[in-house]
Specification:
heterodimer; A: mainly beta; Ubiquitin-like (UB roll); 5-stranded mixed beta sheet; globular; B: 619 residues; alpha+beta; Aldehyde Ferredoxin Oxidoreductase Protein, subunit A, domain 2; Aldehyde Ferredoxin Oxidoreductase Protein, subunit A, domain 3; 6-stranded mixed beta sheet; 23 helices
Chain lengths: 75, 619
């Protein structure tokens, strides 16, 4: 299954390849994608899927546009 | 009949030991709403120009809001405001916890303190009944023993308390106010103002359910919707799991973790303070009034667990800023600060400043009480915090904050005293997110890291989250141009709105679960006022301009809207090595901000700005 993946800012170092095309071995949720990419959950603040804020259990579909954003804001 | 609020504000004259009740109409409440806006109204009316912040002419305001205490997650914040003893201008600090809702349930929307009591007292408000009680035997107590003693004295374990510790009593300008031991009105030296008034505590006991809502059924539905959404919305899920601790590694990985008094931006022991290390001492979640986010932490490595665990700002203040990677020492420092009532941000900053002075030979071992305390010295960090709280030795100088301490120490110490308007910044480096620099420079309280949401999450696809604010071009982290200033102003108003309405930044848009459309529905269900984001943003801007005009009255203008030296130097290492802020570009951004806000070239709001905000009385 193929998705279009953007890893914002410091998450870029977890990119599986040079481009935004990302091949997944099976259908998965946003939470499973984060684990699949080897990103510590504590480093991802939110995901946007097809332009909408997603949940960890949002199921990804073929050609989904996925953007993961890191924690970096303050409080 | 007011819905959501009491329509009563308690005004206490501490000099005379008397009180009156102000009753304002709905127009006044719908103009000033709560928080800093409500407090500013009293500050403008009651504080004479050029007053001594630690003298009897200063006025201390505890202000909730029309929404506070109604039972929605995160709608529990209140503001303490007064003339700021660090800056001589506007001072305010927000806290959550339980005190604000209890004040509302006890019958008052705000409490205003004037004058100075001739002897130590505390205010006791029991379901509308008011009493000033002697606190002579309680003076000098740390916050936990005080809480236990006063619960016993009043025979009521359900009272809610905002108190000062020895640091406030001794008028350290870094003193804070603590409620329920683990929540702080930390910034702006509000604890010092309270101490100057001989006021040990403000204690509330109310009646749950005392506030009438305009549409209880609609509110109930919205509340259920919000709670469900908080349980699945990713930023809230993360906040519940990790609290603000996760910011430690985020800053480190981004190359902008303030370290060793802003000298470095990478800390070799960051992982020990981040979630990886913190998880080992994590002892469960802690929360605020009826909030399901529960972002606060408890830790198991301190003696008095009720003081809670450190959040990001404290981890950076007592950790990376002091070069201390020992999480146990940082947690003990946090415990000490909450016990004696010290703002961990200001206290960490002044300890880091002293450590750099020792490193440079400006402070000697003798100056520091026997040995030179430099970066990395955990026990030394704790020793200095204790001296500051008790104003012993060098602690007496450091208790004044970095600006005044540097002036007293001399020998070039000013070179290492980092502040804006006299107030130390919290620990976010504008060289990696320039909007934070605008916040530091332009905040009416002096350097403030929560002036606007940091722009980093809104780059790329994240810009969609701020589209409802009219921001359609992503604010790039290192930009200082018009897109950044437009974003900053929109963001600044959203957080000023939260402060005015008493809402936690962690429950509402742009990042968190409650979208603006639903927020407007909540306001209507509570108050009965049909509203819009436009009206709420106007209220927010009114609060910003009220604070700015307080500073204008005190002679402040563009001269004070600046950053400190190190932020104009290149980042020395890490992924952003070499990045800096160009002073001319930054000044242009500040000037653009004035123009967009309809302020003049000196940063003074023009009459048109005041008229449009119904602030005619300030012209």
């Amino acid at each position: 299954m193929r998705i279009n993946l953007t890893l914002e800012a410091i998450l870029g170092k977890f990119a599986p390849g040079p481009g935004q095309d990302c091949e997944l071995p099976r259908p998965m949720t946003v939470g499973q994608l984060i684990g699949h990419l080897g990103i510590p959950e504590s480093q991802v603040m939110f995901a946007i899927v097809d332009g909408q804020m997603a949940n960890l259990d949002t199921m990804l579909h073929e050609n989904a546009s996925v953007s993961l954003c890191p924690y970096i804001c303050g409080g | 009949m007011p819905f959501g609020y009491n329509g009563k504000i308690l005004v206490v004259d501490l000099t005379a030991g008397t009180w009156t009740v102000d009753e304002h109409d709905a127009t006044w409440y719908r103009t000033y709403w709560g928080g800093g806006a409500m407090a500013s109204w009293y500050m403008h009316k009651f504080i004479p120009a050029k007053a001594d912040p630690l003298g009897p002419d200063n006025v201390l305001v505890f202000a909730a809001s029309v929404l506070c205490g109604c039972g929605m997650s995160g709608f529990n914040r209140y503001t303490v405001a007064a003339m700021n003893p660090l800056t001589g201008g506007f001072g305010e600090s927000e806290a959550a916890g339980y005190f604000g809702p209890e004040m509302k349930h006890a019958g008052f929307d705000a409490v205003v303190f004037k004058g100075r009591s001739p002897k130590p007292v505390y205010l006791w408000v029991n379901k509308g009944q008011v009493e000033l009680r002697e606190a002579g035997s309680l003076w000098g107590m740390e916050n936990a023993p005080f809480l236990d003693a006063v619960r016993e004295e009043l025979g009521d374990k359900k009272i809610r308390i905002a108190s000062i510790g020895p640091a406030g009593e001794k008028m350290s300008r870094l003193a804070c106010i603590i409620n329920e031991l683990a929540h702080a009105n930390g910034r702006s030296g509000m604890g010092a103002v309270m101490g100057s008034k001989n006021l040990k505590a403000v204690i509330m006991r109310g009646e749950e359910g005392s506030l009438e809502l305009a549409n209880p059924e609609a509110f109930k539905e919205l509340n259920l919707w919000h709670r469900k959404r908080l349980g699945e919305h990713m930023p809230n899920v993360g906040m519940r799991k990790f609290g603000t601790v996760q910011h430690m590694m985020a800053q480190q990985n981004s190359g902008i973790l303030p370290t060793r008094n802003w000298k470095d931006c990478q800390f070799e022991d960051a992982a020990k303070l981040g979630w990886e290390g913190y998880e080992k001492v994590f002892d469960g979640n802690h929360t605020c009034y009826k909030c399901t986010v529960a972002c606060k932490r408890k830790v198991n490595n301190i003696a008095e667990k009720r003081y809670g665990g450190p959040e990001y700002e404290t981890l950076a203040a007592l950790g990376s800023m002091c070069g201390v990677g020992d999480l146990d020492a940082v947690c003990r420092g946090h415990e000490l600060c909450n016990a004696v009532g010290l703002d961990t941000v200001g206290a960490g900053a002044v300890v880091a400043f002293a450590m750099e002075l020792a490193e440079k030979g400006i402070l000697s071992a003798q100056d520091m009480g026997g040995r030179a305390i430099t970066f990395g010295d955990g026990p030394g960090m704790l020793e200095l915090l204790d001296k500051i709280a008790r104003r012993e030795g060098i602690g007496d100088t450091l208790a004044e904050g970095v600006k005044r301490a540097a002036e007293k120490i001399g020998k070039g110490a000013e070179e290492y005293a980092f502040h804006v308007k006299g107030q130390e910044p919290a620990f976010h480096d504008p060289r990696g997110k320039t909007g934070v620099g605008l916040g530091f420079a332009l905040s009416p309280t002096g350097a403030d890291h929560i002036e606007a949401p940091h722009e980093s999450p809104f780059q790329g696809e994240g810009v969609k989250l701020v589209n409802p604010l009219g921001i359609v071009v992503a604010p790039m982290a290192l930009d200082n141009g018009p897109d950044k200033v437009r974003y900053f102003i929109a963001g600044e108003k959203t957080w000023a709105m939260n402060n005015t309405l008493g809402i936690c930044n962690f429950v509402v848009a742009p990042l968190f679960a409650l979208p603006y459309s639903k927020l407007c529905e909540v306001v209507e269900a509570i108050t009965g006022w049909s509203t819009s984001l436009h009206e709420l943003m106007l209220a927010a801007e009114r609060s910003m301009v009220l604070a700015r005009m307080f500073n204008v009255r005190e002679g402040m203008d563009r001269k004070e809207d600046k950053l400190f030296r190190r932020l104009f130097e290149p980042l020395p290492e890490g992924p952003l090595k070499g990045t800096t802020i160009d002073p001319a570009e930054f000044q242009k951004a500040v000037d653009m901000y004035y123009a967009m806000m309809n302020w003049d070239e000196n940063g003074i709001p023009r009459p048109g700005a005041l008229y449009s905000l119904s602030l005619d009385w300030l012209i």
